[in-house]
Amino acid sequence: MGEHKVFGRPRTLANLPFPYCPGCGHGVVHRMIAEAIEELGILERTIMVTSIGCSVRMWRQFSEVDICQPGHGRAPAAATGIKRALPDAVVFAYQGDGDMAAIGTAEVIHAAARGEKIAIFFANNAVFGATGGQMAPTTLVGQTTSTSPSGRAPQQAGYPIRMCELLATLEGPTYLARVSIAGIANLNRAKRATLKAMEIQKEGRGFAMVEYLVPCPSGWHMTPVESLQWIESTMSKAYPLGVFRDKGKEGREG
Question: Which of the four, 78, 101, 197, 240, has the lowest number of CB atoms within 10 Å?
Answer without folding.
Answer: 240
